[in-house]
Amino acid sequence: MVTRIVRGFSSWSRPRYAPINWRLTTTLPAPTFDTGCTFCEPTFPPDKQINFDQPLDRSGAIPTKHVMSLTTHDNKMDEFPSRIEDWQGTLAHEVKQLKAQIPLAEGVSVSSIVLDHHQSVLLRYGVTKSSDQLVFLYPEMKAIKFDIRHTDQFMQKYLSSPTPHKVYNPFVKSTGTTEGRAKIAVDDANFTEMELDKDLIVTCGQTERDIRCGILGPLITEEFDKVLTQEGLRHECYVGQITHIGGHAFAGNVLYYPRHCESSRDFIWYGRVFPKDVQGLVEETVKEKKIVAGLFRGDLSRYEK
């Protein structure tokens, strides 16, 4: 790997951490203070109510690898179109256009995020040109900067599925399944890998996709900002909003990716989160690494002992 320095970051070299010892809890502490909207009760259109009936266990399509793009045309989630992959000039659109030639590995998901103090984060990671792309890659825990012209190389290097080994069988005709794969030469010098050194907490807030997310996303994001500040943890977390992840009826949808991610087992997806739940989630999940079972959209059986 080529060593490069960008605004105080060296080329990425991930330290080793012990796996997170996730535990399950069935309780969520009640809030102990009011930030100003802790007890807000948002209302929703009659045909866009929150689904409180369906169990959340295994309701989320949690990826095995998650790409979070921080670079879009602007930084206003409420102005994003319904389908980010159809928005020309975004990384999601470029990936969609190239998937036929460079198939993604199984379980890869590409999202866009808008963080609090978004421009400061971009500058911190050395994003200075309109063509620069910055992504957070999980569970590899890399911040990666590259030019959007090299999206094909990005996909080949970080996201592509392995080329199947061909086994000769004279009685079977070739299906041609690998003939369409592009042969992409990757120049490692086109990519700068940097340390991803904070927890990430994002809430689905894509208004144009579903109004429930549009209503709850900003409220929950602001509540996390205030609660983490109150707890002295704000400098340890990136907080913001994310594009569609599925399950609008379970809004608010909150994703917590700790800085010590080792695998998708460390991707904690919650549903039916309201501002009043944030203090409890900070205490139980962010601080204590406990999964609140009643809100968890993953597979609870993965964490049972």
From TrEMBL:
Superkingdom of source: Eukaryota
UniProt xrefs under SUPFAM superfamilies: Thioredoxin-like (SSF52833)
InterPro entries noted in UniProt: Aim32/Apd1-like, Thioredoxin-like_sf
Any Pfam family matching the protein: Suc_Fer-like
Family affiliation: Belongs to the AIM32 family.
Protein name: Altered inheritance of mitochondria protein 32
Species: Lodderomyces beijingensis
